[in-house]
Amino acid sequence: MNGFRKPAFFTLSCLLFSISALLGGCNAMKEARERRLAAQINLISTEIQATMQADWTATPAPTASQTATHTLTPTDTLVATATLLPTETPLPATSTPDTRPLPAEWKNWPIVPDISETAKEIFWRGVNNNKTNPNVFSKIGDCQSMPNVFMGIYDMGYDGILADDEQYLQKAIDHFKGSFAMESYAVHDGMGVGSVLTTTWADPKVCQKDENALDCEIRIHNPSIMFINLGTNWISGLGMDVYYDYLREIVQELVDRGILPILSSKADDAEGGNQINEITARVAYEFDVPFYNFWNAAQHLKNGGLSVDNPIYLSVPAWDYRNYHALKLLYTAGTALGLF
Fold first, then answer.
1. Using CA atoms, how far apart are residues 51 and 48, in angstroms rounded to an integer?
2. Is this structure's pTM higher than 0.85?
3. Which 3-state string (H, E, C) describes the chain?
4. Residues 211, 32: Cα–Cα separation, whole Å
5. At what angle do helices 31-49 and 12-25 cross, to 10 degrees?
6. Which of 7, 158, 191, 208 has the greatest number of beta carbons closer than 10 A?
7. Confidence band (pLDDT; 50, 70, 90) for 72?
8. 280: which residues sit within 8 A by CB, 6+ positions away?
9. Pairwise CA distance, residues 1 & 29, whole Å
C-alpha cells in the first residue's frame, strides 16, 4: 500500500459524474439512497455549475468496423504463435527462479502491477496474428462496470481532469480514446462469471444466434485488452471451485484470441473471507497476466470504499479512485507495450 495518493483530479465535475452514475448505474439500489444522493446533487449544484459546463454528451461508441489500421511491432519483437496453456503450477519461462508473490499474499500485491513478458506476448500475438485493435480496450462486468461509473469520464473531454504532475496519463487517454465511453455487450446489471459465457445474457438485437455475451463483445468491438470486473454477484452456495473454473475459462478464451486480460479485485466481501479476490489473484498468477488490485486502493477509503447503506456497492469517492488507478494501469501497459 506504500506510495498511495489521492488523485489530484478529484474535482466537482468528477463528483457530479460519480453521483449521477450511482443514481443510474444499478437498478437494485434502494430508493432511499437515491433520494439522499439526489439531495447531495442539489446541495453542490450551484458550485458545480460555476466550474464546469452545464451540458455534455458522451463520445459515440466505436462501431463494429474497429480494426487496426496498421500492424504495430513492439520494440523487443515480442511475437509468438503458440497458444498459452498455463498449468495449475506454471513453470518459469526461463531458468530464472519465479520470485512473484503467491496468490495467498494477494492483499499485499501492488495496486498497479508491472506488465510481464507473457502479457506482452499475448497482446502482440493478438494484434499481429488476429488483428485485434491496439487502440481498443473493453470490459466484462456488472452495472459497476458501465461507462457512466467506470472509466467513461475520460472520454468526456473535461479540462483540468489531470493535475500538472499527472499530464503523462493523457497519453493513455489519447491512445484509447473512444473505449472509455464504449458500451460493452459483456457488461450488464447483475452479470456474473458464468453469465457472460451463456447466450441468455447476449443482446439479441446485435448478437448472433448461439453467440454468448463475451463472443459478441469481442466480435463487435475487437478489443486488444479486456478488464474483468466480476465477483460481486456470485452465489456462494455454488462453490468457489466452480467460480474458479468459470473465471479460468473466460481468461483462457481471451488468451487464446490474443486479448490481454486484466483481472480486478473487488472492494466488497459478499462471499466471506475474500475468497473470490484470492481466486482472481490465483488465475492472474497462473496465466501471468495483470491483476488490478483495487481492493488495495479501497482500503485507504472510509468503510473500505463501500457504501454504508448497501456494502456491495462502492461509495461515491471510490469511483474516482477506481478510475484513476485503472487509467494508471492502462498507461503502464501502453508504455510497456511500446504503444506510446
1. 5
2. no
3. CCCCCCCCCCCHHHHHHHHHHHHHHCCCCCHHHHHHHHHHHHHHHHHHHCCCCCCCCCCCCCCCCCCCCCCCCCCCCCCCCCCCCCCCCCCCCCCCCCCCCCHHHHHHCCCCCCCCHHHHHHHHHHHHHCCCEEEEEEEEECHHHCCCCCCHHHHCCCCCCCCHHHHHHHHHHHHCCCCCCCCCCCECCCCCCCHHHCHHHCCCCCCCCCCCHHHHHHHHHCEEEEEEECCCCCCHHHCHHHHHHHHHHHHHHHHHCCCEEEEECCCCCCCCCCHHHHHHHHHHHHHCCCEECHHHHHCCCHHHHECCCCCCCECHHHHHHHHHHHHHHHHHHHHHCCCC
4. 38
5. 150
6. 191
7. very low
8. 106, 228, 231, 247, 263, 264, 265, 291
9. 31
Locate 187 and state its grid cell. Answer: 457488461
The 10s digit of each residue's pLDDT in 145-195 is 999 999 999 999 998 999 999 999 999 999 999 999 999 999 999 999 999
pLDDT, tens only, 86-99: 444 555 555 678 99
Average pLDDT over residues 209-213: 95
